[in-house]
Structures
1.
Amino acid sequence: MPESPVDSRRVTSVAELSRVGLELFLQNGFEGTTVEDIATAAGISRRTFFRYFASKNDVPWGDFDVLVDRLRTHLRATPAGVSTIAALHAAIVDFNDYPKAEQDRHRQRMDLLLNVPVLVAHSTLRYASWRQAIAEFIAARSGTSVAALRPHVVSWAYQAASIASYEVWLRQPRVELTAVLDEALTTLEQEFRRPA
Amino acid sequence: MPESPVDSRRVTSVAELSRVGLELFLQNGFEGTTVEDIATAAGISRRTFFRYFASKNDVPWGDFDVLVDRLRTHLRATPAGVSTIAALHAAIVDFNDYPKAEQDRHRQRMDLLLNVPVLVAHSTLRYASWRQAIAEFIAARSGTSVAALRPHVVSWAYQAASIASYEVWLRQPRVELTAVLDEALTTLEQEFRRPA
DNA sequence: CTACATGTGGCACTCAGTGTCACTTCAAGG
DNA sequence: CCTTGAAGTGACACTGAGTGCCACATGTAG
């Protein structure tokens, strides 16, 4: 069967749909691209698009939740000998270490997420699970409750450092993202008095 | 002229419209209230509503920008003898010190802003100017650039402490918000090694 | 009384997001 | 080979936010 009755160009995965959307956003801007446009380009209907994404805002995020799960696993697997700060440092750098082949796409994605107001706002909701993973780890390591003030404030600070790093990286594409992150995290660690 | 031709009940200020909206949100929930509902309750048209607010999401914020301006002024007026940390501490507590008569409304407003997902997301954009004011002050005091990493990370941490305080306060209405904030800020200050 | 600036309402339009239902695809089991 | 059921898809209609445009009212300065 050389030709399926279904259009073989039909895109039916979150990852691929995200790529198609990203391409259109690059061409026409985020606001300038309608869900209809993405659906058409992917060979599916508008209705079907919303079965893959809860909202247009989620397109640039792709499979983010999977990555957060990986971060959580990474942290849990840290040997007890490694300090909390060192563990977070390594896990966060690793979290943002994308293969060369994907770096362009990743930059483009982050450029949108950090500069389009609607997406900046929406990011808060997506980042919440990331911060939660960090906060849980800090709480577990320090033996305090996750509901305590400190884990959350610190996880916010880590998010801030990450975002600040991305902003530097987007302005200076030459430097390695992981290098910037490494520096930012080091700066952050020097801000904390007690060993976390 | 006992009766103006214009409906005297017509509401024509951001502050009052915000109050009308808040009341409806309390009754029917944020999602359960349409802009049309608010406009009707305020005696104006839907079109006019959008001349007061850029979006429905801005209703709970009311005149926030004015408050941020006041924060900025407060910080600038700080005598040079007061440390950066102490100045921020005082200014932030003051920023959140509402008169008794408005406390109920303020609690209701914050309850929405911290619990309705769309509003949580949108808050990021509104808080940005607050953080900017903090970051500018820190940068000025430490003689570094506002573009530097540290002012931003620290301002994020202050925001996190504020939000965490509000969450505590919303769960335990008995305690004073300013007291919770005071405690949270003290905790935060102990996290910083160098004098900011 | 006129002229001009500002505020308002009505209307039509775009687009995101949702509920419903009919249709297709495909795999499992007779 | 046929049936049955589950899962994915598309068409359609609808709600609601937000915008552009234009006509009308109000208020103020000359």
Note: Chain B has two domains: 14-59, 63-193.
2.
Amino acid sequence: MTEKEGHWKFRRELSVGEVAARSGVAVSTLHFYETKGLIHSLRNRGNQRRYPRGVLRRVAVIKVAQRTGIPLADIQAALSALPHDRPLTVHDWAALSKRWRESLNERIDKLTALRDQLTSCIGCGCLSMEDCPLRNPEDTLNARGSGPQLIEPT
Amino acid sequence: MTEKEGHWKFRRELSVGEVAARSGVAVSTLHFYETKGLIHSLRNRGNQRRYPRGVLRRVAVIKVAQRTGIPLADIQAALSALPHDRPLTVHDWAALSKRWRESLNERIDKLTALRDQLTSCIGCGCLSMEDCPLRNPEDTLNARGSGPQLIEPT
DNA sequence: TATTGACCTCAACTATAGTTGAGGTTTTAT
DNA sequence: ATAAAACCTCAACTATAGTTGAGGTCAATA
């Protein structure tokens, strides 16, 4: 709303409220992301956060990654491998999104396999620890023989 | 291990440790499920939990539902609509698993759509709140016109 | 200039799904 | 009979992803 800090053409910094309004996340979430190292800010003379415009793209990338099921810690790790003082490029985005699409695909594949097993088990209902693929997805138990399970498996 | 409580042929109750060993969940988890109303137990003279054998099937159903992404509260709601003093029947299981398969299918469909959008956006990288389908999945913003977003949307 | 809105920090709280530990009792095995 | 293993409750803690509120400061506007 204000044009105080120079001519609008040259104003490149955003307040936290502006970033919230334009990115669709709450101010408290931006604070939170900053504590987690997902975004970074500079401070003005009054200790208020000032963001470079590139933060909008960063937040967008974070939100998309979250939709694909990537935990914030992993997003942070991926972003921190990139320079944090320049905007993300289209190339950065392509690299990140390709990786995340892979993990999304894995998730989809796992869920699809689960759905197929569920479908084939609906009429069965055995749910036996030893026999049912739904209960024993990785065949972990048969790996060391049958019988009752170990107490409190890792 | 013990045959104390009657001839083995008639022993129908399980201790919490036995349930843990046979179901593959921790004792603490069984306690936790009980506080959430997901499973139920009787107590012996010494105040120790004694479970009817049907609890094994219940725990199995809970774990399968969790794999499909159903929250415990929903699982509890579904299970509590059934009599809690008899084992789950194959028919119970069929009804539950059909519902859960539906919600699993919805999850898969959403993730698949997301993956397809991600794929088509990898080369783009605009991530604009207004234009990018990845950022604006439900077209919530255009529903009330364009421009900057409302602050702190619900 | 004064007031209001936006901002600051820090602690505490929400929700989900449990785990861990302290302190004490019961059951099982020797 | 006694020691060990299993059990009990309850509170506190873990992790993830934030939100809320108190108490105080800064900035924009009337």
Note: Chain A has a mean pLDDT of 80.
